[in-house]
């Protein structure tokens, strides 16, 4: 399969581009569009893309006749809508990074356009493809614990992950990217909707940016970690600790296209990742709770928090005949039946990021393109529905009111009609 890439950042380069390097007999990248020259050249050279197929802007790529079967769009959140709409018109099969768009009505328009043109558009809600969550879905669907009644679900972001991505990094400011519940936790809203299998009726949410702000800066701290900060050596968020090392792994390898220590040092001295976590321009929440009511009276209590030592999701799914608990980083699912029986499951694993989900979604996408299958586990229409839950949660958090999903979507569509 021949493919083009828009956005050669971390996801484009490592999650999906690396698959093509491992399996060149399955997929080959023939074009790339990326405004950052260093990232563009790094990707192009890795995939042997000729000079005339290296574009600085996505518009240059999409103004040409269709170059190949597939297009992967991994640009920043607010740079999804225009290229994906153009790519649908051009006839590409599309793999689109989440979120589809930070703007609710744009998400609905993407879904409508994909349906209208019968486009294969797979949204990177990759967790549905992870063997761990595939196994969990199969257990829930077998109704071994009867009918699901309530769920407790936690997303433990990890203190260092939050500091890297949501305080210093690309997703720190909702006006530049997306609200936290959409950018990070749309995975969770999507998986909950998928597992429960019915419509979400209403949402209420609370959360705020509590800790990562100027008033909590320790005495002796400076704007940058290497500006003579007196507490840098003991600070758990020290940029020197996380980025000035010889490990070619995330997050150290995410701050510069060049992995050398000299390049990383320059980024820390001049770029956003060298800033003190208490002196950034971040505004996304560092903790949030969401309560969801689904059809059949199924209730969900979801918690997202930055303040955990490790990065993982854990949950308890409670049914009429038993309960399922699990921890994805431990690859452990436990079923406790009310009869007293217990069952422990360790799902099969697959190599690749997100517990093998990055690999599995590429396998499925390539298969769909080759077989001309227009359907997808995370199609635009399916993903738009779970996006609406995240948008409604943010609406509730900001307004302090409970939000009805049907009313929320109806209002969006009415607003669009009034504008037109």
From TrEMBL:
Coiled coil: none
Similarity remark: Belongs to the Gfo/Idh/MocA family.
GO molecular function: nucleotide binding
PANTHER family in the cross-refs: BILIVERDIN REDUCTASE A, BINDING ROSSMANN FOLD OXIDOREDUCTASE, PUTATIVE (AFU_ORTHOLOGUE AFUA_4G00560)-RELATED
Ranges for domain Gfo/Idh/MocA-like oxidoreductase C-terminal: 137-404
Start and end residues of each Gfo/Idh/MocA-like oxidoreductase N-terminal domain: 2-124
Protein name: Gfo/Idh/MocA family oxidoreductase
Family matches, as InterPro entries: Gfo/Idh/MocA-like_OxRdtase_C, Gfo/Idh/MocA-like_OxRdtase_N, Gfo/Idh/MocA_Oxidoreductases, NAD(P)-bd_dom_sf
């Amino acid at each position: 399969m021949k493919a083009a890439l828009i956005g050669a950042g971390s996801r484009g380069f490592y999650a999906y581009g690396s698959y093509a390097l491992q399996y060149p007999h399955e997929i080959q990248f023939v074009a790339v569009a990326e405004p950052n020259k260093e990232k563009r050249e790094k990707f192009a050279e890795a995939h042997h893309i000729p000079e005339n197929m290296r574009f600085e802007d996505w518009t240059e790529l999409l103004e040409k006749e269709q170059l190949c079967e597939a297009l992967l769009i991994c640009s920043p959140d607010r740079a999804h809508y225009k290229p994906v709409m153009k790519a649908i018109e051009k006839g590409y099969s599309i793999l689109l990074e989440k979120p589809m768009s930070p703007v609710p009505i744009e998400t609905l328009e993407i879904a409508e356009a994909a349906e209208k043109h019968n486009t294969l558009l797979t949204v990177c809600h990759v967790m549905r493809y992870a063997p761990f969550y595939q196994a969990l879905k199969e257990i829930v669907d077998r109704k071994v614990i009867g009918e699901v009644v309530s769920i407790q679900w936690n997303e433990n972001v990890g203190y260092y992950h939050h500091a890297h991505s949501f305080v210093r990094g690309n997703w720190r400011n909702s006006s530049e990217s997306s609200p936290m519940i959409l950018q990070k936790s749309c995975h969770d809203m999507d998986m909950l909707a998928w597992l429960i299998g019915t419509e979400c009726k209403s949402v209420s949410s609370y959360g705020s940016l509590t800790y990562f702000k100027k008033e909590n800066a320790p005495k002796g701290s400076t704007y940058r970690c290497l500006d003579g900060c007196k507490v840098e050596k003991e600070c758990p968020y020290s940029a020197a600790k996380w980025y000035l090392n010889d490990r070619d792994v995330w997050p150290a390898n995410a701050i510069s296209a060049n992995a050398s220590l000299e390049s990383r040092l320059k980024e820390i001295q001049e770029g956003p990742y060298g800033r003190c976590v208490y002196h950034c321009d971040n505004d996304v929440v560092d903790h949030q709770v969401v309560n969801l009511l689904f059809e059949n009276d199924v209730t969900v209590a979801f918690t997202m928090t930055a303040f955990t030592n490790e990065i993982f999701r854990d949950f308890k799914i409670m049914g009429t005949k038993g309960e399922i608990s699990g921890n994805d980083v431990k690859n452990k699912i436990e079923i406790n039946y009310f009869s007293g029986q217990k069952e422990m499951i360790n799902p099969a694993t697959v190599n690749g990021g997100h517990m093998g989900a990055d690999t599995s979604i590429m396998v499925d996408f390539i298969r769909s393109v080759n077989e001309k299958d227009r359907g997808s586990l995370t199609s635009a229409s399916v993903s738009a529905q779970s996006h609406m839950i995240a948008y409604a949660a943010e609406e509730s958090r900001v307004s302090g009111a409970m939000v009805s999903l049907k009313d929320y979507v109806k209002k969006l569509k009415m607003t669009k009609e009034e504008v037109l």
